[in-house]
Amino acid sequence: MILNDFMLSMIILIALWAGLAGSWNLLSGYIGQLSLGHVAFMGIGAYSSGILFTTYNVSPLIGMAVGILVSVLVAIIVGFATFRLKGPFFSMATIGIAEVLRNVAHLMKDMTKGSIGLTIPYKPGLVNLVFESKWGYIGICVVYLIIVMAVTYFINNNRFGYHLRSIAEDETAAECLGVNALKMKLKAFAISAALTSMGGTIWVQYVMFVDPESIFSFAYSIEMVILAMLGGAGTVIGPLLGSLLITPLTYILQEALRDYGSGLYLVIYGLILILVVLYLPKGLVGLWKDLRFKLKRGSLDGKPIEKLGNS
């Protein structure tokens, strides 16, 4: 059972989506400004490598680097314009950016093939990020996840991370204490965009096809949000925990509900997001920390755990 194709595919998707959710987490999880258009950078990474590979036979590794550079540039430009916006207005602006890029991909038919989409040629090899066995994709996705988690861990335990959390708590107070809020947020946005773009390149080399409607799908942005929030936004391990639970559920729901409408599983997604916001605002990591704190207090105070609710 462990070695069958379905389980191997699940391992690939769990690692890849954990990495993508972790990339989103570096921006929204630490700063607290909700991005609902992060799929824009996933699309940039996918099209950068896809176009260079299919049209000019350039290695996707180089295409990945190009996608990262373009994504960082877009993130900085967009950040200057949108970080002045607060609350839902920032989220709406990020959705608009993804929509703009989706329409651009439709219009640039000479490069992107428009709605027909690009088909990635089957040329196995590490340099092309195309493998004959699923184990190759497992390796590259796990490496991607490790990179994202390593960057998150470094930021989480670094002065940069403390600045980001202070901005999320109270931006005005943070600036009064000498934190350059705009600079910190632009750095976080650039790092997040770069890692998301990297994941987009790996994604397109795995599915071997990209078109505007799929790669710029709003559902992908929502998936990043749900995975990170369910596991624990602003934590290192949270996106992985969320992916372990939700990624298999996504494909099971799509298969089970495909006869009732292609978008019905998004209704389930919406319900999960509502429940997480209402009952698990800190995610699974936050729930575990709260339980551990209560257990510790119970053991130190000598009180039964069930009586701690009012203490």
Low-confidence stretches: 305-311
Binned, the helix content reads over 70%
User: Helical region count?
Assistant: 14
Order of helices and strands: HHHHHEHHHHEHHHHH
Strand order of the largest sheet: 1-2
Count of individual beta strands = 2
- The structure class reads mainly alpha
Binned strand content? under 5%
| Rg (CA only) | 20 Å
Q: Mind summarizing the main beta sheet?
A: 2 strands, antiparallel
Instruction: Give the overall shape, derived from the CA principal axes.
Output: globular
The span between the termini is 48 Å
Compute the average pLDDT: 89
Task: Explain how this protein is built.
The chain has 311 residues and is mostly helical. It has a domain of 213 residues. Helix content is 75%, strand content 1%. The chain is built from 14 helices and 2 strands, in the order H-H-H-H-H-E-H-H-H-H-E-H-H-H-H-H. The chain has a two-stranded antiparallel sheet. The relative contact order is 0.16. The C terminus is likely disordered.
Key traits:
single chain, 311 residues, mainly alpha, 2 strands
Structure described in brief:
The chain has helices spanning 5-31, 39-56, 60-82, 88-107, 109-112, 134-156, 159-169, 171-176, 181-207, 212-215, 218-231, 238-257, 264-279, 283-301; strands at 118-119, 209-210. It is mainly alpha-helical and 311 residues long.
